[in-house]
């Protein structure tokens, strides 16, 4: 009987975690990662620097991610320019945090330890996608309204 009860708890948790939003975010995350990887490779070939190439790729990928996440994942609309600017600032600010994590990982694992760059990029991308979802869901595109007293 406990096995069935445990199964239902896992099923309920999976139902809360795996939904239209998280699936769409995962698809957008894969597309954003593709944009990032292609941009990174192009800039790496041009500049021969992992960190600089990653920085340029980040700008392109984050801009893409903001537009697609806003419209297709979180269905966020801002009626006032100020609200939109706040969301853009939060989005890029949060992404700067994960860029720092990624740059630190690239520096340590590629530059210092000599691990193959695509293995490092792939592993870091998974970590960054999860952290970015948490920021987007609960901080940037949070649908809770502030009460104006």
Write the SSE topology.
Layout: H1 2-17, H2 20-47, H3 50-73, H4 81-112, H5 117-140
Helix pairs in contact: 2-3, 2-5, 3-4, 4-5
Pfam families: GtrA_DPMS_TM
Protein name: GtrA family protein
Family: Belongs to the GtrA family.
Report on the structure:
By secondary structure, the chain is mainly α. The protein has one domain (36-140). Helices cover 83% and strands 0% of the residues. The chain contains 5 helices and no strands. The protein has helices at 2-17, 20-47, 50-73, 81-112, 117-140. The longest helix has 32 residues, at 81-112. It is globular, with a radius of gyration of 18 Å. The model is unreliable at 145-149 (pLDDT under 50). Its main location: membrane.
Describe what is shown at a glance.
The chain is mainly alpha-helical and 149 residues long. It has helices at residues 2-17, 20-47, 50-73, 81-112, 117-140. It has one domain.
């Amino acid at each position: 009987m406990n096995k069935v009860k445990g199964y239902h708890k896992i099923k309920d948790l999976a139902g809360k975690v795996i939904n239209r939003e998280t699936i769409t975010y995962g698809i957008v995350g894969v597309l954003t990662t593709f944009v990032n990887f292609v941009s990174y490779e192009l800039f790496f070939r041009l500049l021969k620097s992992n960190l600089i190439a990653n920085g340029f790729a980040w700008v392109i990928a984050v801009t893409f991610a903001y537009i697609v996440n806003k419209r297709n994942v979180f269905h966020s609309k801002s009626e006032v320019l100020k609200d939109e600017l706040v969301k853009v600032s939060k989005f890029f600010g949060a992404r700067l945090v994960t860029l720092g994590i990624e740059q630190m990982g690239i520096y340590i694992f590629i530059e210092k330890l000599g691990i193959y760059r695509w293995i490092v990029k792939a592993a870091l991308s998974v970590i960054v996608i999860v952290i970015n979802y948490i920021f987007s869901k609960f901080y940037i595109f949070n649908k809770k309204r502030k009460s104006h007293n």
